[in-house]
Design goal:
Chain A has 308 residues and is of the alpha/beta class. Chain A is built from eleven helices and 14 strands. Chain A has two domains: 218 residues, P-loop containing nucleotide triphosphate hydrolases (Rossmann fold); 67 residues, Alpha-Beta Plaits (2-Layer Sandwich). In chain A, strand 1 and strand 2 form a beta hairpin. Classes of the chains: A alpha/beta (308), B alpha/beta (245), C alpha/beta (368). Chains in contact: A-B, A-C.
């Protein structure tokens, strides 16, 4: 392989009786925008903290830019940027003071690396004398990202950067990450939102401390092993109850006001579904074949017995 | 008030100084409906909900909730609504059972009803053998379902949900929505505020608020058709951005 | 070095932008000094004094007159025998009894030394102490006048007896005690709270990941509070001096140096607390219970440790403020120097090093 930025081998970490991460193996290439996708408690934060040298693993090895996260932690700390889940800004300092502070503790200055943060920082520069505590969620997020980038890190770790910010800010944030990626920086970002997985080069789906799959979003969706049906009826609740009691149902999940349905029978035709539902007096509005979303894939993987 | 409208809002206005937090809102919510109340941070959602829950008085407008007006019948309103927030209303250091009993007690359920409700609820949520677990020791998904069940323990007519399903896996989230649909089916009105658009997809109708005004109100499907997009997320982005530009 | 400077500047921003911090830093010391000062000084206006004059001559009359003229005393009873002293105290008629021996003036003139006893009701130790010191001062003043006139050689040497609390070492002037409380409060509590805040808000994660060395973080956190505590020490001493005439008889340089040592000690305790406290609330709680209360109760600031049960007295030896109070009191009131204070100084120094090393060792370079 060409250039490995992050290498993780057989990593384990336990808190008391809870196995936070189990046997994680993962390699991330230089310049990749890589997503860790999974719900709370999947182990995303633990993994990121081990990689940022903040936690010690119980067993296994991890290195970032060929530097071991335990042995070479001092050197490593100079090369990485980290944005924790809570934005970790000083709320009583102004926008500019926050940025200047993070610049000086990394031994640099705003001027020196202004070109790198300019696309992001220029959006909030107009408020540079405002206290960080008085910024909106989206602006805090931009400031926190600027602070994490100010020392021109080679690898950027973002722990749930979009949690708790509104949809517009989320989209803007991902646009910024795309732009950053063009500068060649490796980005590892975690998120609980399945739809954000689409925006990564590759994603690891995580659940209960384990990685369920590591693929590009397209591979992931193309590898969905079943025919997937979109069904919409007048009463979603009733439709779901009916499908769940059908012996031919493999899975039926609500997706908003519609249902995504997979049959046990891979040869199932639309007519058969229609006939069955109509026999149950269900008023169908629409039935069609659709491609799987990341969320369908995640649920499918959750249900699969663990591969050896 | 028509028989089936459980919430009626006409020209709801809330002014702080010169600032219109809510600028002449008009909408109604039907009984048994799942109504999504969407908007970015700071759009004015929280202000409006506080008014609907009887926690704050509007500057103007005619607002009735469960048949009571929000100016001087707030006590009746509070008895007829439930509330659940993502930032949990459950006490971490009490057990599952103690939490149920505490909230049941607040709403004045008598001992017999409370005992019955507690055991029904534990059974329904499959928590009977975990009833003596501390809340902090049970998984997030269960907490959310428990919090919702507790929010409707006093059989309210309306339940307000504030970003109810953040942070859980897709299957757990669907279990949660199953509960919500079931409650709606039984006639409880569900009023969901969120800025997660995938939660909006589950609602019967959604309103989208920008800068204190409701700028769209329809079913998710109609909204998607109107704006020629595939997801509520895109609807929201179009509306919010159009507003900015 | 630049990184370190940036860190210190940031700390000052935090301090100066939070009015509550500012209030604790500067409001509390001033309030405490003034409060304590006035509580104590108001009580010795016109304090009741009984006189047992076995001589009844010109000199004893003159001394009594001077006491009356000072405004601190009023003579509430003339006694005729020593057996009455106890009942005078019991009834609360007087807080102090002055006993002139027989042939007072005559003995004075002969140069044999005359007998003056000051007996005080020390159940209220503060007041007793002040009364005695005022009386002594008046008598000595009289002495000096006589010397100047060269009529008689200086011979009056008051013998002081304390009732109910004969040793009366603990409470003298309040300023040393207040200084120890304030320096402890500002240094330990504020540092531990400010470090806990970084943890609570999640900022510590970023600081740890940065190239800042742990020792830079530690010193960067301690330095601002060191400076502010020092400012406080100076202002308490000046306030005591300007408002309440509390003297600094010894070397002011030595006093300030010892104060800096004590501040460093308190800071390292704060650092230690912050290594176990995950939130500001916990840090505050530990500082209050673990440091403030012992400082006030067990250091000899208010209650003399000699009167405590043995086990408590033994514990009091482990209280750093105890040594600082001794040092400060001796420098300020007795005017002694390091030659007499080296044992206490050494104890403080040892404790400081011990806590500093433990705290630095416990400071984590990682989370948990």
């Amino acid at each position: 392989m060409n250039n490995r930025s992050i290498e993780i081998v057989e990593l384990n970490k336990r808190y008391g009786t809870i196995q936070a991460i189990k046997n994680i193996n993962l390699t991330i290439q230089t310049g990749e925008l890589f997503g860790l996708v999974g719900p709370d408690g999947a182990g995303k934060t633990t993994l990121i903290r081990i990689l940022t040298t903040l936690l010690l693993a119980d067993s296994g090895k991890a290195s970032v830019n060929k530097l071991d996260v335990v042995k070479n932690y001092k050197q490593l700390r100079e090369q990485i940027g980290y944005m924790p889940g809570r934005f970790s800004l000083y709320m009583d300092l102004s926008v500019e003071e926050n940025l200047a502070f993070f610049a000086t503790i990394f031994g640099t200055s705003i001027q020196e690396n202004y070109d790198l943060i300019k696309p992001i920082y220029s959006q909030i520069e107009a408020f540079k004398t405002r206290k960080a505590g008085a910024l909106s969620g989206g602006m805090k997020q931009k400031l926190a990202l600027s602070c994490a980038l100010i020392h021109r890190p080679k690898v950027l770790f973002l722990d749930e950067p979009t949690t708790g910010v509104d949809a517009v800010s989320r989209v803007e944030f991902w646009e910024m990450l795309k732009e950053l990626k063009n500068t060649g920086i490796t980005i590892l970002v975690s998120t609980p939102y399945m739809d954000e997985a689409e925006l990564c080069d590759r994603v690891a789906l995580m659940q209960n401390g384990e990685i369920l799959s590591i693929e590009s979003p397209d591979e992931l969706k193309n590898n969905f092993p079943h025919d997937l049906w979109y069904i919409k009826a007048e009463n979603q609740y009733k439709l779901l109850q009916i499908l769940r009691t059908w012996e031919k149902t493999y899975s039926a999940h609500g997706f908003g006001q519609s249902i995504h349905f997979v049959s046990q029978d891979s040869q199932m035709k639309e007519d058969e579904i229609r006939q069955f539902l109509e026999s149950k007096t269900c008023k169908i509005q629409r039935i069609m074949r659709i491609g799987a979303s990341i969320e369908d894939c995640f649920m499918e993987l959750m249900n699969q017995p663990k591969k050896a | 008030m028509t028989a089936e409208n459980i919430i009626e809002v006409e020209n709801l206005t809330k002014i702080y100084g010169q600032f219109y937090a809510n600028d002449h809102l008009n909408f109604s919510v039907k009984k048994g409906e799942i109504f999504g109340f969407l908007g970015a941070n700071g759009a004015g959602k929280t202000t409006a909900i506080r008014i609907l829950c009887g926690l704050s008085k509007p500057s103007g407008g005619k607002i009735t909730v469960a048949g009571f007006n929000v100016y001087n019948q707030t006590e009746q309103i509070k008895r007829n609504i439930g509330y659940m927030s993502q930032k949990f209303s459950l006490y971490d250091d009490l057990t599952v059972k103690e939490n149920i009993e505490f909230y049941g007690g607040i709403y004045g359920l008598n001992n017999k009803t409370l005992r019955q409700k507690t055991s029904d609820l534990l059974q329904k949520l499959d928590l009977t053998d975990k009833q003596n677990f501390l809340i902090k020791d049970i998984p997030l998904g269960w907490k959310q379902r428990l919090a919702f069940s507790i929010a409707i323990i006093h059989d309210p007519q309306i339940v307000f949900l504030d970003e109810p399903t953040g942070g859980v896996d897709p299957i757990t989230r669907r279990h949660f929505w199953d509960l919500i649909y079931e409650a709606a089916f039984s006639g409880i009105t569900i009023f969901v505020t969120t800025h997660y658009m995938d939660e909006a997809e589950y609602c019967d109708r959604v309103s989208i608020m920008v800068d204190g005004k409701i700028i769209a109100l329809d079913s998710p499907d109609n909204l998607k058709n109107t704006y020629q997009v595939d997801t509520m997320n895109e609807v929201f982005l179009k509306l919010a951005r159009q507003k900015i530009n | 070095m630049k990184a370190f400077k940036g860190f210190v500047i940031k700390e000052f921003y935090h301090i100066f932008r939070d009015y509550r911090t500012m209030l604790i830093l500067f409001g509390i010391p001033i309030a405490q000094v003034i409060l304590f000062g006035y509580i104590i000084t108001t009580e010795i206006n016109e304090a009741g004094v009984a006189v047992l004059d076995n001589s009844k001559d010109a000199v004893t009359r003159e001394i009594q007159n001077q006491m009356l003229a000072s405004g601190f005393f009023k003579i509430t009873a003339q006694l005729s025998s020593e057996t009455e002293i106890e009942s005078i105290f019991r009834k609360g008629i007087a807080k102090e009894v002055i006993v002139f021996g027989a042939n007072f003036e005559e003995n004075l003139r002969k140069g044999e030394g005359s007998d003056l006893q000051i007996v005080a009701d020390a159940s209220d130790a503060n007041v007793a102490n002040l009364l005695v010191s005022y009386t002594t001062a008046i008598v000595q003043n009289y002495n000096r006048q006589q010397m100047a006139d060269m009529q008689i050689p200086m011979q009056i040497e008051p013998r002081v007896r304390m009732y109910y609390n004969p040793e009366l070492k603990g409470v003298y002037f309040f300023v040393p005690g207040i200084m120890s409380v304030i320096l402890m409060l500002i240094s330990a509590m504020m540092t531990s709270v400010s470090i806990a805040r970084e943890k609570e808000m999640g900022n510590m994660e970023i600081l740890l990941v940065s190239p800042l060395r742990p020792i830079q973080i530690i010193i960067g956190k301690l330095m601002p509070y060191f400076l502010l505590s020092f400012v406080n020490a100076v202002s308490v001493i000046s306030l005591g001096w300007l408002v309440f005439d509390v003297p600094v008889n010894g070397s002011i340089v030595l006093l300030l140096a010892e104060s800096m040592l004590f501040i460093t000690l308190a800071l390292s305790l704060g650092l230690l607390i912050s290594s176990v406290a995950a939130s500001q609330q916990v840090a505050m709680f530990i500082s209050m219970l673990g440091l403030m209360l012992p400082t006030i109760l067990l250091s000899g600031f208010i209650y003399p440790t000699e009167n405590m049960p043995l086990w408590l007295e033994l514990i009091s030896y482990a209280m750093p403020p105890k040594y600082y109070i001794i040092i400060a009191k001796d420098i300020m009131l007795k005017g002694v120097g390091l030659r007499y204070l080296w044992p206490e100084t050494l104890v403080l120094l040892g404790m400081t090093l011990f806590f500093l090393i433990v705290a630095s060792k416990k400071f984590k370079i990682r989370l948990s």
